[in-house]
Amino acid sequence: MTSSRSTRLTADIRSQSEYLGRLVIEFDDQPNSGHVVSILWTAVAAYSLMVAIVGLLGYFFGDFLVLWITARSRPQPAAADVGRTADSSIDESTSCTLLAVKLTPHRLIPSQALLEQCQQLHGNLVEIARGEYETQFRSAQQLPNCLEFTIFIEHLVTASEGRLQAKMALAQGLLEDHESIAKRVRYMASLSPGKPLISRSTYDEMTRRAIEKEQPHDDPNFRHYDIQPFHSPLASDIELFCLDADHKEQLR
Predict the structure, then answer these.
(1) Are 200 and 92 found together in one domain?
(2) What is the CATH number of the domain that holds 176?
């Protein structure tokens, strides 16, 4: 028997010609649109939430993600670490020291002071993006001058009472590998905990020049440094060190 709202199926139940009863199955023919609409709204809400999360990640961490993908897809270990050891020095005429700096917020950056200090240390300061700088040192004292510039930036951060934040990293390599070194050092800077990060080759060079904290130094171009290994799951294939300068000494 069929009605406008339901379908009913019936069948007699018999056993050995004896009537035992009747089985009735009834189906509701009305479409249950409420559940369908609920599922659709849930799907739309989930999709919108996913788009919002991806958009926020791209807005706040877009540069970091690009650098991370670049570093993973095109690893250049020989660019930042040119195969030198603590027993060999770099050729100053064919090499450079690159420093990547990211300062926030932009309104607190003393751009003129940065430029003047960099020029005094024979460096070339280039703003590659808002608040992001690449500094190249090619003088005979390129490494100590680069380290001196990091100390200057840390003094600016201290003077701002923490309102100005800095992320820094430096590495050395051949001039012909400038582009790959620059990409790698920018990625290193994105991992910085607030102190400069250095590569293994730079650590070896600093050890060779005896500018670690535990070692004596007579050269006024060098300072005392405390160097500790730095570990990050985003740089498991790179050996990094965190550089902490002795700020008790005065700037030159």
Answers:
(1) yes
(2) 3.30.70.1230
